Amino acid sequence: MMRQRHRRRLMVCTVAAAAFGLVSTQAFATSGDTRPRPWNARHQADIGRQHTKAIQAGKGRSALTATEGDGGDEAENSAESTAQYTEARTAPGVVAPGAYGAAWAQLQSMKHTGGDWNHITKKTYNSDDPRYRDINSNSSGGSGNVTGRITGIAADDQGYVYAGGANGGVFRSRTGGGDWQPIADKLPSLSTGTLALDGTKRLWYATGESNTGATSYVGTGVYVLADPQHGQFQPGGRVGGAELESTTIHALRFAGTTVWAATSRGVWSHSTTTLSGPWKLEFAPNPDYLPGGPKASDPSAPYKNIANDIAVDPKDPSKVLLAVGWRGGDTYNGLYSAQGGTWKPVTGIGDLPTNSDDVGNMTFAASADGSRLYAVDQSPAQTNSNPDSGLKGVYVSKSGSPLGPWTQIADYNKLRNSGSALQGAGYMPGIQSWYNEFLQVDPANADHVYLGLEEVFETKNGGTSWITPGPYWNFPFPCWSIDPAKQTGDCSQTTHSDQHAVAVGTYKGKTYAYVGNDGGIYRRPLNGAVDSGGHAKDWTSLADGTLDTLQYYSVGVGKDLAYGGVSVTGGLQDNGQSILRGRDKVMGSNFGGDGGDTITDPNNGCNSAEEYVYLDMWVTQNCGVNNGSWTTDPSKATEYEVAPPDKDLGGSGARFIAPITSDAKDINTWVAGGRHVWVQHKGFAIRSGAEWSNAYDLGAGHVATAVASSGGTVYVGWCGPCNNQGFSRGIAVGNADGTDWHQLNLPVDGTIPNRYISGFEVDPANAQHVYVAVNGFSRKWTEGPGAGVGHVFESTNGGTTWTDISANLPDVPANTVKLVPGGGLALGTDLATFYRPAGTSEWKVLGGNLPTTAVLQLKLGPDNKLYAATHGRGIWAFDTRRLQ
Fold first, then answer.
1. Half-sphere exposure of residue 709, counting CA atoms within 13 Å on the CB side?
2. Helix (H, G, I), strand (E, B) or coil at 495
3. Count of CB atoms within 10 A of residue 466's CB?
4. Model confidence over 128-172: pLDDT tens digits?
5. What is the CA radius of gyration of the chain?
6. Taking a C-beta distance cutoff of 8 angstroms, is the pair 849, 117 a contact?
7. DSSP assignment of 546-569, as one string?
8. pTM value > 0.90
């Protein structure tokens, strides 16, 4: 998620790496409009700045509150990021189901080069590393060791725990959490919707993350593992046929010998005893919009049949309640039950909303004895009108029946007053309840419930009162300290923010609650200890380095002059920027918030620039090493905000993750792409955004998607509009000094497809020789004008003409292209990294070991290794000398 400057940004969309195209008009519906609104989740940097101002004004620290803010809006920006990530893979139209599966099938038959990838980030990542307490770091917030987003958890009573990464697959621990092993890497999809153990202890893996969060990928169905304690998921373990391909799955619920699935294409069911045979479509509110229907190509089709959860009456499995609806609101939103053989809207069941305006993202949880059923509900109407929270409420059916009667037991104000860290106007509990929800009932106590929103809440009396054992962070609390000698003061460790998954399990006779969020997986005793503020004293992070589900956007590599070897850094979804220096055993975090693109000096890895979002760039020349002394002496800060002016325009001025680069032949010349092409020549010595010059205006409504520069020749890809409502793209070429800029002639039906331009590579020997990577799927799958065919193109005349060199590549979105020593070409895609040797036309899969997950950026290090930033399984390196 996103926090003011150091707010962690979540990103919201449901990405169709395979076919679930969202469009920006619906994505923006989550916020109602795109105007900035005040919000006040405060990060350390904001506290620090206000602290400095207070000191300069003669005021003390006590004069400050931890909830002051200076503008911005999480939901609005999250919605925008949703659209921006998705449209790269779907524009100019809607992608038909089956695209991803077809590409994966072709991938299986391709040859591989020799050599293996080495997993670089398979190390503990300490978000509170005391070395990095500079002005732009989250360190000292209390999240401790982190990894990427965990969206599914299952646990048994023998110490086995299963954790599913958002785009990282399933990991198993035999020790109650820790020493993790991947067990789903043979599957075509590593995107986790949910995990569940059935009554016979089989593990069910629903692929397709359902959080409508910006980097949420569709899946390839549901898989079952009969012996999860010892086995691994196999493609042949899929339940049913292809019915659930290219969907997201929010929940699996078991009733007798039936499993129910709430998906992005309605509610389905299947036998749990006979796993062959197709899934049965139980209910789709708008079947015309399903694949094969007369309205399947409508841009709004992906939003028209979203199901969020299913509740089954334990006393009568024939009584089933369906929670259906798009989080942004639609007329079909509501609760449905079977009446007279058909599914009809339910009304009059007590406090639980049933009207379309107030039924959005909804989650159920039943007690083990069937005496209680709980629900948490996000209201589209409230999300669109209330700047503080989208949470309608938390409810209980004390009869255990889905049909109630239901009683409300909490709203966002009650939760805010329970010890929450989110006290400021514009960012209160449930502000992102469309993205953050879980519920878990203590198997031994029907009145004991864990609730996950942005924070972890708990009640032991059925909702009469609540505490916040897992606050958002520790910054607002009196116990917090930035001093590394005090770590985080007297505060106990909390969890990372943004909760998605929960389970209860037992290890060595002790029962634990496990929670999954944007920072990984944490556990505490189910009936754990709390301090006087209701904050837990006993959370343990289970991100021990063997569980690497980190979601990188970028990677940077430079020589480590202090320790030898190289320093490897990269920007991450909701986990700042990681840094791993030459001799480090543990990674640290030197920049906070969402980490975007990165520029690193290959000759000195401590010279580093990081983009937050929307071109909000920061730079350091000492790796960000700082003990926090800048809070009392501002001159001791060594991180500097150097954002180009387009940063202040938000989404109209730059992409959420905007492209930045240094010139291939001059490390001191940087290019940043927003609406304008910005250039500066001071390199890492830049100290102000005013030091950028405007080299070129891409035009109103146009924003850069990719930039490259070599010897002062600059290539910029852009889009605008960037969604399927009139999608347009282009390439501008010019000089870094602002001369000779022009737009290339790229007609809609020209050589380069009318799709998103995602990456360039310029021949260091000839700036007129350039390669371009094109995102999205080809014409066969994309229903849009000029979608075209191909993913990588070559020009030898500065872009005047282009040649498609995709050859035998699978039809899969391409993200990044890189020349490697010897003249070969590497291409990073949503499925794999491919390699074409110099002088040949055929592509091979590059090396072995690299998991099947999205590679968003490739960079060459000074050590002749090719580094891949994957969005779900960390950073990997391949020694290019193996190719020569």
1. 29
2. coil
3. 24
4. 999 999 999 999 999 999 999 999 999 999 999 999 999 999 999
5. 25
6. yes
7. S----BBS--EEEE-TTTSSEEEE
8. yes
